[in-house]
Task: inverse folding
């Protein structure tokens, strides 16, 4: 190996290798700088938990960040943890759990869907994809929890933005534009994530009812009530069967509303919520803290789609439109459940054609929503748009891409062709 | 900053004034085009009133199409544009340039839609922050971010500055409460980012625009989330005989898992000023005075406020009082809200700084500020949003004394540099504008700033939209959009004196 081929000093890496596993920020910058000079595209990888999401694309080399891992600083009282981007989410959760804190946005575990078992991936991947769980409407998404970062842009330059404090308006908020950019703009190296105290306790009000309309109404009323819920989902008949809990007294479709906080207040809030929703006592079950944890964890990890053979679409529409959207989707033979208090629809389609997908997309757009293809038959993948974008936003995105990654070497084509 | 350097004035543009006015008459009603000295004077400054500059022309468009045409025209003719909302910004973000068209958004002042089903409000950008809450409060909803200027500041300005408020630890700043915007780019393109849904797909252009201080686009419509008003709010008024105890109390409240809706600390100087000014009834002997507000359901608030009281006692508070009624709670806050005017009573002028610091560094930073105060021989009082680490030192001075003015600016810079040094930020909620522009190199190196300038270039290649703000102007670099920071070695390049 010539000196030229050796990467940055201490732990030299073989640049000839097709999979590059740097251990330091300098090495990451060095790799990208070389690729920039030589026009070599890179696929950015963590633990591959969300590799299947996004468009297929081919690169000469893979930048594997799984060896770039570790907690840099955790300050529970300052409500942040700073970690290397390749740190497994599990490790972060375990560390903050010891101080009774959590990532309030509930990153989605796509492991069960793609691999049949948990794989929460790395924090870098969580930020790159920006998927938040049931608490989204109350606490925000991954993008709301990234306080600041260091990263390497497509020229191999180390850049930073933000910091470790909650309030910071110094310069453009690059944390936002990078979160959800699927590694196409900058490779995160160090990220400072906001952490929050875990609630003392949790219970879940489950209301059995067979009708979607009523189910959605419960979610909407709960969110507009003063009971301050932190989760509101509806599982129709097909998926409701997947849930068996001791405290679940009714069978069939249900709405579930999570109430978190101090033990005393939870009971009072649930009691009042039952009154406000005017539900019949016989339709009500209340999951205790332990069962609640399991229920919401299963919801966050899309348990009902474990080992899914078919296709999974993620649809977000204004909650007022959800009922009509689902009604219009029925001819496509969909199975679904609803999260985010009525705004997020997870759609399972056992069979899908490119034409159907196009029609579904148009339908969702006509309701001012958007659709992301999460899992799709390999045969279809290259012939359909995974993400949707209009012409103006495409042009702007192209320019933004150019400002970070002028030679288009970072995950090229992962989101859109040409970006 | 006393000799603030702004982008070069283009004589060719100044000489085009009559033509520009007559061309604008094809775009908007002539009554909405102002160019006489008397007419444009109200637009010569924003709330950073020490800096004044009359624009060339003021336009007051009424429709998004007019905004688009104006921007397109200015882009084609290389005319600088400075957008302006309510003009309440504290960092000079709306300060005009002599050769600029000032785009006053004041006529965009209507709430377009109140959508309870989707829990959002669609408003034009010059609707005030508080007007949104007023529009929905009968149904027990409200808009969470509450900058102190909420009575007057515009929601579009809030988006441009990513405004916060005293409740941002629990409820977030503007960026966390915003669903969508309509925006016009410098080339006249009208587009929308976000809508009524969360986390729209693709690059988060909504997040990028928020807090971009009017440099990337002109906001013409805003959709914000509204929240159900908390059932009850209670506050504790707590005195401490030293600032360290107060700091420890803040840390312990957080460490015990309590996220208060608001947590404010005032130092002795500010407490005294406030008591003298409005008989706030704050503990006079306390070195630090703290207000902790909890909101939510009644049982939760009662439980938490008792825990806050216990923590305060454990941290050797000298006094503690829990509000017994909403009136009493508001009385606790009335003093805090009068704190800034109270400083106005103590000196002819005061400069309100806006840094962020890690909460645990409060005592250290306040002591350092006290030392600086002695060094510059200028009195200072401090207010601190303790929950989110946002520090507002108020430096008292006389603006008519040029030497004091100079010292005040130096003092302010030293405070902000100290904030950065301890791991904080240059600005928590007021924005960089012109005020902290030259300090950007404290927080960022050349590469960081260049990346930001490249984004600016992507959306506004001729750098015509609000130029001279946020990023330092160095030597000839402005036109090229490049920054030269002496390899990061000169910590504080004092540009205006070049």
Result:
């Amino acid at each position: 190996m010539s000196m030229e081929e050796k990467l940055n000093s201490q732990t030299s890496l073989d640049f000839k290798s097709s999979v590059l596993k740097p251990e330091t920020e300098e090495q990451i910058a060095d790799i990208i700088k070389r690729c920039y000079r030589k026009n070599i595209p890179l696929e950015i990888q963590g633990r591959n938990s969300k590799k299947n999401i996004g468009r297929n694309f081919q690169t000469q080399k893979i930048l594997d960040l799984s060896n770039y891992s570790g907690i840099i600083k955790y300050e529970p009282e300052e409500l942040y943890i700073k970690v290397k981007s390749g740190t497994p989410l599990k490790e972060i959760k375990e560390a903050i759990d010891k101080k009774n804190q959590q990532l309030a946005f509930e990153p989605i575990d796509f492991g069960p869907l793609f691999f049949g078992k948990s794989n929460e991936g790395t924090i870098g991947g969580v930020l790159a994809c920006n998927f938040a769980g049931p608490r989204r409407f109350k606490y925000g998404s991954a993008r709301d929890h990234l306080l600041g970062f260091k990263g390497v842009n497509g020229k191999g330059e180390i850049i930073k933005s933000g910091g470790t404090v909650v309030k910071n308006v110094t310069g453009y908020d690059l944390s936002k534009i990078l979160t959800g950019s699927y590694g196409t703009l900058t490779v995160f190296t160090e990220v400072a994530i906001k952490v929050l105290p875990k609630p003392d306790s949790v219970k879940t009000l489950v209301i059995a009812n067979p009708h979607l309309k009523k189910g959605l109404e419960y979610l909407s009323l709960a969110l507009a009530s003063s009971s301050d819920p932190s989760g509101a989902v509806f599982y129709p008949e097909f998926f409701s069967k997947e849930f068996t809990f001791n405290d679940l007294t009714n069978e069939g479709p249900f709405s579930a509303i999570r109430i978190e906080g101090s033990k005393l207040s939870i009971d009072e809030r649930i009691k009042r919520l039952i009154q406000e929703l005017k539900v019949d006592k016989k339709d009500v079950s209340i999951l205790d803290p332990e069962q609640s944890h399991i229920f919401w964890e299963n919801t966050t990890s899309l348990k009902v789609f474990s080992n899914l053979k078919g296709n999974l679409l993620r649809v977000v529409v204004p909650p007022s439109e959800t009922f009509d959207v689902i009604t219009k989707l029925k001819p496509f033979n969909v199975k679904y459940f609803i999260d985010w208090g009525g705004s997020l629809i997870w759609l399972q389609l056992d069979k899908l054609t490119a034409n159907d997908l196009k029609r579904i997309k148009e339908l969702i757009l006509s309701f001012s929503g958007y659709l992301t293809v999460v899992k799709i038959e390999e045969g279809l993948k290259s012939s359909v748009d995974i993400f949707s974008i209009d012409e103006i936003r495409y042009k702007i995105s192209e320019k933004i891409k150019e400002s970070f990654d002028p030679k288009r070497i970072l995950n090229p084509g992962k989101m859109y062709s040409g970006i | 900053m006393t000799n603030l350097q702004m982008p070069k004035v283009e004589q060719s543009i100044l000489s085009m004034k009559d033509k520009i006015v007559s061309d604008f008459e094809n775009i908007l009603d002539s009554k909405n085009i102002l160019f006489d000295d008397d007419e444009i004077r109200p637009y010569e400054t924003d709330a950073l009133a020490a800096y004044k500059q009359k624009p060339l022309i003021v336009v007051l468009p009424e429709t998004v199409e007019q905004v688009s045409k104006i921007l397109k025209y200015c882009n084609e003719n290389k005319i600088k544009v400075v957008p302006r909302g309510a003009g309440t910004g504290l960092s000079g973000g709306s300060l005009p340039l002599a050769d600029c068209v000032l785009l006053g958004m004041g006529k965009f002042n209507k709430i377009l839609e109140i959508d309870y089903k989707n829990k959002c409000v669609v408003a034009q950008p010059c609707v005030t922050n508080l007007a949104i809450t007023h529009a929905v409060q009968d149904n027990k909803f409200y808009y969470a971010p509450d900058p102190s200027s909420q009575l007057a500041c515009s929601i579009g300005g809030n988006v441009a500055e990513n405004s916060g408020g005293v409740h941002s630890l629990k409820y977030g700043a503007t960026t966390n409460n915003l669903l969508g915007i309509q925006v016009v780019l410098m080339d006249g393109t009208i587009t929308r980012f976000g809508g009524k849904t969360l986390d729209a797909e693709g690059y988060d252009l909504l997040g990028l625009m928020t807090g971009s201080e009017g440099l990337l686009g002109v906001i013409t419509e805003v959709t914000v989330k509204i929240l159900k008003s908390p059932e009850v709010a209670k506050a504790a008024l707590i005195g401490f005989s030293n600032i360290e105890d107060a700091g420890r109390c803040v840390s312990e409240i957080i460490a015990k898992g309590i996220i208060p809706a608001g947590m404010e600390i005032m130092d002795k100087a500010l407490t005294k000023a406030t008591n003298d000014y409005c008989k706030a009834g704050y503990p006079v002997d306390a070195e630090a005075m703290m207000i902790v507000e909890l909101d939510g359901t009644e049982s939760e608030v009662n439980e938490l406020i008792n825990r806050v009281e216990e923590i305060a006692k454990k941290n050797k508070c000298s006094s503690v009082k829990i509000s017994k009624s909403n009136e009493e709670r508001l009385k606790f806050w009335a003093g805090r809200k009068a704190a800034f005017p109270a400083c106005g009573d103590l000196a002819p002028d005061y400069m309100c700084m806006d840094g962020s610091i890690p909460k645990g560094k409060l005592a250290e930073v306040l002591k350092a500020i006290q030392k600086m105060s002695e060094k510059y021989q200028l009195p200072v009082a401090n207010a601190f949003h303790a929950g989110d680490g946002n520090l507002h030192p108020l430096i008292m001075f006389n603006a008519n004394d040029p030497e004091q003015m100079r010292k005040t600016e130096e003092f302010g810079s030293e405070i902000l540099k100290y904030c950065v040094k301890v791991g904080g930020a240059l600005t928590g909620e007021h924005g960089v504008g012109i005020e902290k522009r030259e300090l950007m190199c404290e927080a960022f190196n050349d590469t960081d700033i260049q990346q930001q300038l490249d984004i600016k270039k992507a959306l506004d290649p001729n750098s015509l939209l609000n130029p001279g703000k946020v990023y330092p102007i160095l030597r000839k670099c402005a036109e090229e959009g490049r920054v030269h920071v002496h390899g990061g070695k000169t910590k504080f390049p004092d540009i205006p004196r070049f």
